[in-house]
Write a structure and sequence with these properties.
The complex is a heterodimer. Chain A has 4 helices and no strands. By secondary structure, chain A is an all-alpha fold. Chain B is mostly helical. Classes of the chains: A mainly alpha, B mainly alpha. At the A-B interface, helix 1, helix 2, helix 3 and helix 4 of A face helix 5, helix 6 and helix 22 of B.
Chain lengths: 123, 555
């Protein structure tokens, strides 16, 4: 019983760590954006799980004896999801523009490209 | 709560200006767009000023309100405390002046004015937000706009700087949300005032609350660019258009300070001393490393950027030591002189077509500039290096007094000494920058500033001088002597570097660098270069931040 209660938390924690690991271990810019999304979604899940501790029914259209979940966290997470979408969109646009110039999405390659360019400017 | 509804006005007015500027963009009416944006920010500034002064006179300073007249549990909480009342009008005023400066740059259209206005509204929102979740929302508004502004001119290197800024920001804001979750789980509150009340009733920080606050402090430290979280700043400041660099340094960094102050309120309610100490030391280490890293920059904008890290370190140390007045004074001083420096140096670099300090000197530096520019540059330098009688001097004295007075023993003593050594680094790095005035050749004349640019310079100049005059009472023989000794020592460092560099043309310097290849020294400097490059890459930044979070969580 205890394990069944704790299991979702462990899973969400693992998703969070997968996001962090993906962010650190991937070389490609698009993969990093995906990892950021995973990180963000893990946070959304964490908050929703917290809201579920208050009750189990949807916090809308009450019939009488429902015990609703915490509606506040759902409102918060709606905002957080929207913010996450904006960040992702902007990041992808930036990657596209960088790709147009450098011809690669591999981050070490991009950094090398800009260092070369800088040295060219220096002379 | 009827009277407090005006609290949302400073956020709404620039947004209206932004919407109108976007409309003007569709008609290609550049002048109208900038006018709308400037009016919006000006109206916001005026609203802020009226609110702040009214609250100040009536003595109701932590003024709270709910947007739209909802009940406090369901509505959006807004709060106007002392830092908000101070920073709000100041930041809006500086943004207004910077946008006025940007009108001179023909490459920036209405869209720029619109995004800039939204960014200003985001900054106002962060300053006014009364609960921790809204701080997150406004932070994201601000950082999305800032990323667009950084990349605005469409150079690929600027895009990459914006990308780095967004990714590091997203990681930090993820940790901020995680911290928010811990706080909400433990207390069930998000509003600042109820949170402080509940924690001070408990009298101590429970373990989850402490964990949450550690995460949030790390997330906000990235916005203030404290040391393990600072990596995004130099490239972002360096690649952005001139006006945006000034905005980032003068406005964006300051918004985080208000949030840090509010988190410190929560911490102090629960006597969370280790975290307060950690923040103090983060500030001190930033002050030290930022100032000395600035000395080794060849790119003038990077030099100014690292010095921003250093100055914000001073302010954070003062905040953590509980010296709110010192923190406000020094951050206002920094906002004024660093914005002016970015505008002057950025304009020079744009006109001469290079950011490299040596090349700028070869091309004549400030020798081709107008009298007003040289005067503003000298005054800003005097303020940043802390020549007695200028604002930077008074600010540093206040911060040092605040840190030394925070407690006895090793922490206060060590911190104030490290801050003094950091001041030496600041003097040395800005001494190097002042070599721009002593260029070897007269070089090319650059076009004089337009009327608008000149008026912006005069505004900043008089504000800096006025702020220095405000605290002339701090001037006495002992501290002045100390400041002069620091100046002299910094001058020696600059002179040593100059002697080492002069008499060698760049080609010779390159050749001697190649000759030294293979010696032990160059092996060391080569591996140091590799290390710095690895730390400067995106993975390095994220890794440094995660280490910072681990240390904070451990406390």
């Amino acid at each position: 019983m205890v394990l069944a209660d704790a299991l979702p938390w462990y899973l969400v924690g693992m998703i969070f760590l997968v996001g962090l690991g993906g962010l650190l271990l991937n070389r490609r810019a698009v993969s990093k954006v995906i990892a950021l999304n995973i990180l963000n979604n893990a946070l959304v899940l964490i908050f929703i799980l917290q809201g579920k501790r208050a009750g189990r029914d949807a916090p809308i259209l009450f019939g009488g004896q429902e015990v609703p979940v915490d509606p506040l966290v759902q409102a918060l997470m709606l905002t957080a999801i929207v913010v996450g979408v904006c960040v992702t969109a902007l990041l992808l646009v930036l990657i596209q523009c960088i790709f147009d110039v450098t011809g690669t999405t591999d981050l070490p390659e991009i950094e090398r490209f800009f260092r070369r360019e800088e040295r060219g400017r220096g002379r | 709560m009827g009277g407090d509804q005006g609290l949302l006005l400073p956020v709404l007015l620039p947004l209206v200006g932004a919407a109108l500027a976007l409309l003007a963009e569709t008609w290609h009416a550049r002048r109208a767009g900038f006018t709308f944006a400037l009016t919006g920010i000006f109206a916001g500034c005026a609203a802020f000023l009226v609110l702040a002064l009214r609250a100040w006179w009536s003595g109701s300073l932590p003024l709270e309100g709910v947007a739209g007249g909802w009940a406090p549990e369901t509505g959006i909480l807004l709060i106007l405390d002392l830092p908000a009342a101070f920073f709000g009008p100041l930041l809006y005023g500086i943004s207004l002046v910077i946008l006025l400066f940007a009108t001179a740059d023909r490459s920036l259209g209405c869209l720029f004015a619109a995004v800039f206005s939204v960014a200003v509204a985001g900054a106002g929102g962060v300053v006014l937000a009364g609960d921790l979740f809204n701080i997150f929302v406004f932070f994201e508004v601000l950082s999305l706009c800032a990323a667009i502004l950084i990349a605005f001119q469409g150079r690929a290197s600027a895009m990459y700087a914006a990308f780095r800024y967004l990714v590091t920001g997203a990681v930090c804001i993820a940790f901020y949300l995680l911290g928010l979750f811990f706080l909400y789980r433990a207390t069930g509150e998000l509003g600042l005032t109820p949170l402080v009340a509940q924690i001070s009733r408990a009298g101590e920080l429970a373990a989850p609350v402490r964990l949450g606050l550690a995460c949030m402090i790390g997330g906000v430290a990235m916005r203030v660019a404290l040391v393990p979280f600072h990596g995004w700043l130099p490239s972002a400041h360096g690649e952005a258009p001139t006006a945006v660099s000034a905005f980032l340094s003068g406005v964006l960094l300051k918004t985080g300070l208000v949030v840090l102050y509010r988190l410190l309120l929560v911490l102090q309610a629960g006597a969370g001393q280790p975290l307060v100490q950690a923040l103090l030391w983060m500030g001190v280490v930033s002050a030290f490393l930022g100032a000395w890293a600035a000395l080794f920059q060849r790119d003038v904008k990077h030099l100014l950027a690292y010095s921003s890290i250093s100055q914000l370190g001073y302010v954070t140390a003062a905040l953590a030591a509980g010296a709110l007045g010192a923190a406000l004074f020094h951050s206002a001083a920094h906002a004024l002189f660093k914005s002016l420096l970015f505008l002057l140096v950025g304009r020079l670099a744009e006109k001469l077509g290079t950011h490299d300090l040596g090349e700028l000197r070869q091309k004549g530096g400030f020798r081709g500039a107008s009298f007003l520019e040289i005067l503003s540059f000298l005054v800003a330098l005097a303020a940043v290096t802390g020549i007695p009688g200028f604002s930077g001097f008074a600010g540093k004295q206040l911060v040092l007094a605040g840190v030394a007075g925070a407690g006895s023993g090793f922490h206060a003593w060590g911190a104030s000494w490290i801050l003094k050594v950091a001041a030496l680094g600041t003097v040395a790095s800005f001494g190097t920058l002042s070599l721009l005035l002593l260029a070897p050749a007269a070089g090319q004349r650059i076009a004089g500033p337009s009327l608008r640019e000149r008026s912006v310079m005069v505004i900043f100049l008089s504000a800096i001088l006025f702020q220095g005059l405000l605290r002339l009472d701090l001037l006495n023989a002992k501290v002045s002597l100390e400041a002069l000794i620091t100046l002299g020592a910094g001058g020696c460092v600059v002179a040593l570097r100059w002697v080492a560099d002069s008499g060698r043309t760049p080609e010779e310097a390159l050749r001697s660098g190649e000759e030294r290849k293979g010696s032990v020294l160059s092996a060391v400097s080569g591996s140091a270069g590799t290390l710095i490059r690895a730390l400067g890459s995106l993975d390095g930044l994220v890794l440094a931040m995660l280490t910072g979070f681990l240390v904070l969580l451990h406390l």
